[in-house]
Amino acid sequence: MKKLILILTLLASYSAMAEEGNIEAGKAKAATCAACHGTDGNAAAMPQYPKLAGQHPAYIEKQLKEFKLAMSTGGKQGRNDPVMGGMVAALTDQDMADLAAYFSSLPISDNTSSEESIEVAQQLYRFGDAERGVAACIACHGPRGNGTSLSGFPKISGQNAEYVKLQLEKFRSGDRANDMNAMMRSVAAKLSDEEINALSQYVGGLH
């Protein structure tokens, strides 16, 4: 119980930090982000990258800090990504808070769930698979895919399918390992290629 309270306290501090960011300052600093994430934060031209628009500011800020941590630890800690590592290397904590505040203030673009994804993905998302020990996605990301800022779970509704697929594959292989208590790695390790593809096509249309 004490451990849970500590985790929630730390996550709450992330929210507080992100809320201190300045939207207008973040807008000015976001010019270099547009090449991959789009001028409106929706990465329409490059769907292998995430939409940042409408994402919880605490989550954005946390990811930026972990990209920087990975660069400073040779990939042993944080979230290892050579491209993002280079982009965040010179950012201060205030820069990250400002960027998080800006992108979270933007409206996320609409997305849909493909018809062919529903049969496989809806069952997994809502109920998981108890026989294989696969937790239901809804438990953390919510029925509408909005996640929760306080708990550190990101909004996945509206997200680019290609990006979601890449992240699930990285969690499955262990190439991405910055998930709290290895929760995403535990789930993704049990998913087949078909299930990952279906989920990535399905979650974008949750609303």
TrEMBL record:
One of its GO terms (molecular function) is iron ion binding. Keywords: Electron transport, Heme, Iron, Metal-binding, Periplasm, Signal, Transport. Residues 1-18 form the signal peptide. SUPFAM superfamilies: Cytochrome c. Binds 2 heme c groups covalently per subunit. It comes from the Bacteria. Residues 21-107, 116-207 form the Cytochrome c domain. The keyword Signal applies. Heme c 2 binds at C137, C140, H141, M184. Heme c 1 binds at C33, C36, H37, M84. InterPro entries: Cyt_c-like_dom (IPR009056), Cyt_c-like_dom_sf (IPR036909), Cyt_C_IC (IPR008168), Cytochrome_c4-like (IPR024167), Cytochrome_c_Oxidase_Subunit (IPR050597). This is Cytochrome c4. It holds the Pfam family Cytochrom_C. One of its GO terms (cellular component) is periplasmic space. Gene3D superfamilies: Cytochrome c-like domain. It is found in: Periplasm.
